[in-house]
Amino acid sequence: MGGIPRANETLSKSVVVPESWTNLLLWAPESRSEWYANSGNQYIKTWYQNDDNYVELYFNPDSMFVLEATVDGITETPIRTTVYKFYGNSVIRLAIRCDESFLGLSVSAAAPFEHRYGAAIDFLRSTVLTSKTGNHNGTGLMSCTILSDKLYEGVIADDILE
């Protein structure tokens, strides 16, 4: 079919993050979850301070959402969800929460949120970060539409997310 060639658009902006925060994303994948099984990690968003300190959110070939921090060049234990199946253009809600006691990932795909938690990451608080689509070096961008991306001061409680 003819048409205009298209490519994923990478977005990047500097944001001032408070001591504790919640980033809510409404996200729609381009295709069914099974389509990504042979594509390697598909990166949705990165919170980047420098080449040694960043946190990446991605969908892996095992159909799990993963939030993985690299601190001082060392990869921390990732936060992983259970397996998710979805259709293209379905709306998936993602919440990334950060404070002095934890880093959290919450996901809802046409169901109540699943909440997962990991260790606090100090460089993510009270600083300027670059928020960008894809991974920390700008590759591996998942084909998707980000419908909404909002940063809130404070950690939104589990029951309020529902």
Structural overview:
With 162 residues, the protein is an all-beta fold. The protein has a single domain, classed as Jelly Rolls, CATH 2.60.120.200. The chain has 1 helix and 12 strands; from the N terminus they run ββββββββββββα. The strands form 2 sheets. Strands 1, 3, 4, 5, 6, 7 and 11 form a 7-stranded antiparallel sheet that branches. The protein is globular and about 35 Å long. 30% of the residues are buried.
- Helix/sheet category: mainly beta
- Which topology does CATH recognise? Jelly Rolls
The CATH class, by name, is Mainly Beta
**Rg estimate, integer Å:** 15 Å
**Uncertain regions: pLDDT < 50 for 5+ in a row?**
none
Average of pLDDT: 90
End-to-end Cα distance, whole Å, is: 42 Å
Largest sheet: 7 strands, antiparallel
Percent of residues in beta strands? over 45%
Question: Number of domains in the coordinates?
Answer: 1
Total DSSP E strands: 12
Question: What's the architecture in CATH terms?
Answer: Sandwich
Order of helices and strands: EEEEEEEEEEEEH
Enumerate how many helices there are, as a single number.
1
Helix content estimate: under 10%
Gross morphology is: globular
